[in-house]
Amino acid sequence: METFAKILLSFFLVSNLTILAIAVDTLTLNATQSIRDGETLVSEGGKFELGFFSPGSSTNRYLGIWYSNISVQTVVWVANRQSPLKDFSGILKLTNKGILVLQTQKGNTVWSSNSSRSARSTPVAKLLISGNLIVKEENENDPENFLWQSFDDPSDTLLQGMKLGRNLITGLDRYLTSWKSPDDPSPGNFTYRYEIGGFPECVLREGSIVRFRPGPWNGVRFSGTPELKPNSLFTFGVVINEKEVYYSYKLRNSSILSMMVLTQKGYWQRHKWIEKTKAWDVYVTVQMDECDNYGLCGSYGSCNSLDSPRCSFLKGFVPKFPEKWDNNKDWSSGCVRKTPLNCSTDGFLKYSGVKLPDSRKSWFDFSINLEECRNLYMRNCSCTAYSNLDVRNGGSGCLLALVC
Ligand SMILES: *[C@@H]1O[C@H](CO)[C@@H](O)[C@H](O)[C@H]1NC(C)=O
Ligand SMILES: *[C@@H]1O[C@H](CO)[C@@H](O)[C@H](O)[C@H]1NC(C)=O
Ligand SMILES: *[C@@H]1O[C@H](CO)[C@@H](O)[C@H](O)[C@H]1NC(C)=O
Ligand SMILES: *[C@@H]1O[C@H](CO)[C@@H](O)[C@H](O)[C@H]1NC(C)=O
Ligand SMILES: *[C@@H]1O[C@H](CO)[C@@H](O)[C@H](O)[C@H]1NC(C)=O
Ligand SMILES: *[C@@H]1O[C@H](CO)[C@@H](O)[C@H](O)[C@H]1NC(C)=O
Ligand SMILES: *[C@@H]1O[C@H](CO)[C@@H](O)[C@H](O)[C@H]1NC(C)=O
User: Fold this and answer.
1) 45 lines ligand 2 (CB under 6 A)
2) How many CB atoms lie within 10 A of CB 156?
3) What Pfam families is this protein classified in (predicted)?
4) What are the tens digits of pLDDT across the range 346-396?
5) In a domain? residue 331
């Protein structure tokens, strides 16, 4: 059984960005130098800056990367999120083995980078034009061989070229965690992460509770986020193959400052810098309305923000607790079948324009079409819904929702 086939996205190639960056970047840190509080490393072109900062009204010092050219402090990455420095004595060094270490004056290490191997020749650290802080061997130009990169350890911000998702070979899992508060970059309550139980799907959690999911990728967009459509600001895509699962985007015009952020209140937003007002504008909040609250209408319920009440039930189902449903507007218990399922006689009903069900416990196959999908699983009692995986070119692939 083929579990992963390839979706090749030709409209962007993330690694090209990185290669381009190396060729023109000149600012480096080597094992005989260091960066003290007050000193910074600036990327070629001056878009990003690495150094020490204090967030909001805090006096704690953190090592981080921010947009260097704008008047509003905008930190996109923090090294020592959970171990702030209490004074200005912080110093960033690179060891001969290629490990970045952040130390106090007394030589206590409060943060260090991590690498699966040691440098075989002279290591250097660079801040690339993409905002990616990397450690590599001096003459190494293949991003695959970098010893470490900050893009693999995201904070709450997804910059262009970063991958949100997993390397299935190494197990590397790049996900976002909100800041605790404007004064505290330590991990807050929200995470946004690719989960890979069934067909991979992004999930936003508050602690362990699922709050939102954009729906499975359908070849063009996430099925539950019609607002994230092709646009003039950026291109985006998802790669799902046997090696990797990730979402990434590329700005159409790299002079424009724009990024995705998981906010402290748990919103997944795109921000765009407006030079005229010298402020960040919320270009889009991916959670649009109440129906984006995970499981609002419960199992076999259907949510439509234009309806009142928002929740209705699918044909053949009734609310599990009718009184709760009608009087308390508590839909979370969902619905149950009016009559028990009979797999040998019952069939499927078609629903269009809906977000696909939670796919984390689904089964999928890129190689068969909708008709084959239906014929294979029509009489299988654990298959409760099916759809195309990819809606392009008339549709292909098969995604099955299973009883869990
Ligand atoms: C580190 O960089 C400095 C400044 O470019 C240079 O003088 C020094 O020789 C370099 N050290 C090593 C070990 O490459
Ligand atoms: C940053 O500002 C400097 C000085 O104003 C300017 O030369 C440079 O082009 C700017 N870089 C970016 C990326 O906007
Ligand atoms: C560093 O890497 C090792 C091995 O890959 C891992 O066990 C450890 O948790 C990592 N430490 C940090 C701080 O990421
Ligand atoms: C995180 O959740 C806890 C427990 O629900 C709550 O007390 C705290 O205020 C939340 N923190 C933020 C930053 O929302
Ligand atoms: C990119 O954006 C910059 C800044 O807004 C603008 O000056 C430039 O003309 C744009 N380039 C293209 C190719 O649209
Ligand atoms: C399903 O329907 C068929 C045909 O009406 C019937 O023979 C069978 O007993 C039903 N099975 C169940 C589990 O109700
Ligand atoms: C139904 O389909 C699932 C998923 O392919 C499979 O694991 C299960 O064995 C099938 N059950 C039957 C009775 O064919």
Assistant:
1) yes
2) 25
3) B_lectin, PAN_2, S_locus_glycop
4) 888 888 888 888 888 888 888 888 888 888 877 788 888 888 888 888 888
5) no
Q: pLDDT digits over 70-119, tens only? A: 999 999 999 999 999 999 999 999 999 999 999 998 999 999 998 888 99
Residue 363 Cβ contacting ligand 7 at under 6 Å: yes
Cβ–Cβ under 8 Å, residues 190 and 202: no
Query: From ligand 1's centre to the CA of 340, what distance in Å?
Result: 75
Report the candidate in 3, 109, 102 with the shortest Cα–Cα distance to residue 50: 102
For residue 85, the 8-state DSSP code is B
Residues 143 and 229 reside in one and the same domain: no
In sequence order, the 6+-apart residues with CB closer than 8 A to the CB of 162 are: 132, 151, 154, 174, 248
Residues 238 and 249 in one domain: yes
Question: Does residue 136 share a domain with residue 24?
Answer: yes
**Which ligand 5 atom is nearest residue 253's CA?**
1
Distance, in Å, from the CA atom of 209 to the CA atom of 213, rounded to the nearest integer, reads: 12
Q: CB under 8 Å to 306, separation ≥6 — which residues?
A: none
Q: Identify the domain containing residue 389 by its residue range.
A: 341-404
- Asked if residue 380 has its Cβ within 6 Å of ligand 7, the reply is yes
90 and 173 assigned to the same domain:
no
- Name residues whose C-beta falls within 8 Å of residue 368's C-beta, 6 or more positions apart in sequence: 376, 397, 398
Number of separate domains in the chain: 3
Pair (166, 127) in one structural domain: no
* Residue 56 near residue 73, CB atoms below 8 Å: no
130, 158: one domain: no
CA 209 to ligand 4 center in whole angstroms: 13
Does 8 have pLDDT greater than 50? no
- Three-state SS string across 172-218, please? CEECEEEEEECCEEEEEEEEEEEECCCCCEEEEEECCEEEECCCCEC
Tell which atom from ligand 7 comes closest to the C-alpha of 400: 4
Among the three residues 288, 304, 327, which one is the final residue of a domain in this structure? Answer: 288
Contacts of the segment 224-233: beta carbons below 8 A, 24+ positions apart: 224/292, 224/355, 224/356, 225/286, 225/288, 227/284, 227/286, 227/288, 228/284, 228/286, 233/258, 233/270, 233/272, 233/283
Report the alpha-carbon distance of residue 30 to residue 280 in Å, rounded.
Answer: 35
CA of 160 relative to ligand 7 center, distance in Å = 41
Question: Are 229 and 361 in a shared domain?
Answer: no
C-alpha Rg value of the chain to the nearest Å: 24
pTM: 0.87
